[in-house]
TrEMBL record:
One of its GO terms (cellular component) is membrane. Residues 24-569 form the Cytochrome oxidase subunit I profile domain. Keywords: Electron transport, Heme, Iron, Membrane, Metal-binding, Respiratory chain, Transmembrane, Transmembrane helix, Transport. It comes from Flavobacterium kingsejongi. InterPro entries: Cyt_c_oxase-like_su1_dom, Cyt_c_oxase-like_su1_sf, Cyt_C_Oxase_1, Cyt_c_Oxase_su1_BS. SUPFAM superfamilies: Cytochrome c oxidase subunit I-like. Gene3D superfamilies: Cytochrome c oxidase-like, subunit I domain. PROSITE patterns: COX1, COX1_CUB. Its main location: membrane. This is Cytochrome c oxidase subunit I. Belongs to the heme-copper respiratory oxidase family. One of its GO terms (biological process) is electron transport coupled proton transport. It is a multi-pass membrane protein. The chain crosses the membrane at residues 41-61, 91-112, 133-156, 187-213, 225-253, 286-307, 319-339, 351-376, 388-410, 422-448, 460-486, 506-529.
Amino acid sequence: MSAVAHDHDLSHDHEQEHHHKDTFISKYIFSYDHKMISKQYLITALVMGIIGIGMSLLFRIQLAWPEESFKVFQIFLGDKMAPGGVMKNDAYLALVTIHGTIMVFFVLTQGLSGTFSNLLIPLQIGARDMASGFMNMLSFWMFFLSSVIMISSLFVESGPASAGWTIYPPLSALPQAIPGSGMGMTLWLVSMAIFIASSAMGSLNYVVTVLNLRTKGMTMTRLPLTIWTFFITAVIGIVSFPVLLSAALLLIFDRSFGTSFFLSDIFISGEVLHNQGGSPVLFEHLFWFLGHPEVYIVILPAMGIVSEVMATNSRKPIFGYRAMITSILAIAFLSTIVWGHHMFVSGMNPFLGSVFTFTTLLIAIPSAVKAFNWITTLWKGNLQLNPAMLFSIGMVSTFISGGLTGIILGDSTLDINVHDTYFVIAHFHLVMGISALYGMFAGIYHWFPKMFGRMLNKNLGYIHFWVTAICAYGVFFPMHFIGMAGLPRRYYTNTNFPLFDDLQDVNVLITMFALIGAAFQLVFLWNFIYSIFYGQKATQNPWKSNTLEWTTPVEHIHGNWPGEIPEVHRWPYDYSKPGHELDYVPQTVPMKEGEEVLNH
């Protein structure tokens, strides 16, 4: 034992020595420290988020006032895509495609998993760092490279990819199909291939770290729910992302080497192409086999963050800890067998449709368990309504309201009526997009003191939450109604259809809410950037929380704890426990004799 302690001291001295020798490049750029890498992920995701939201504003303006001239189009899109300030249909398709890609993969996937898995896994399980610091650093820089390639596709001569974020063939498989099928589409595929490699490296690192590097006493049933969700998210990513990589590689073969995996009987301008025997439906199967687990890769980390923030700010143990873990595992399993509900109108066998309907409706059960457990955690709690808590409650609201419409879309007979209308957009933006963003904001407000050693301004946080909450519902709630009225998605103007003239006012209303909501994200950005440098200095445990990350010093050191790693004696949700003076009992406090163990 003494030899181990001696080795530990030596390694710690070496760490301290290494810490002092850090150059700017090794500390802030090619850093192995998981805390620095998490900041790199967060800041990259925020920049990508600004670009993605900016694109959505451009196409919302186009939908509200079609065929009108706007100076802003000319500034951002140039004369080729917006001659005289009037947006062309190619430009609209390109904006929709890149907006969807950026928000789903680059903001929500890595903004949540990359940021918070990196920050919290070593800190909350009691580890010095990730299992492989080098692989962790490499995974971020591959993500950064894929971001740069995706953005660079906006500047190629023929324009960026324009086949929708789902890039269905034949638009994505034939370079000559439309302007956006050329070089921009190739860059999209290269970017996604690098992104998937980055994601796989990150996920393997998270899984190994959780399984192998937990501190003494940190059993799996003493892990915070955040760690459970990051762990299961990484497992889903390892299982499903390679399938999208195979689809992307086969698509590259079809585009560049004359194969016919996804193409058959194609005519372009009267010319018969040689492709025979492929099927675009095969691509749909491969894409959605990732595409649906991807929804949970995005939403599960948000669920974990919300569970942690709610327990801390309700000053109550999380309700149904083991039921929460079981529901996470059930969601992970079911998420891989529901992909066909995206394909009810693809000509799929109706019997297969009924199977996918059954599995899709089944996944509502573990989702409902989580919703009820959050509501019960809030019930009769001593609620601390800080911005992180408000965003957590907002996430439960959008998850429930968005999830209810999923029951309609999960039923093959009902889905056919609203498929490819704005009803679908309303559903997945609420249940996945807004809910995940709320989880991300909750995490930023809650762990900002841990990341930067300073506090965010609470009053600006309140303004940010209330305006965002009102505008998010203002944008996506009316979309359900125009979707039920039949308004199709991905049309850059509906002026050719007199049937939809009456819906134009709703489109204007949605766009106004979108513009206001986006403008108030600048309040958050200002708060974020200003507080990094000038925010109020954070205390070691500002939220009086139980988990291990609040036992580390405010000043970051590579290795997290200056001395021994603390030992864990209890689960992380001992709030307001009878027999203790304070209303929180950190995981490092030993059990008293005869103390009741709540979580067993």
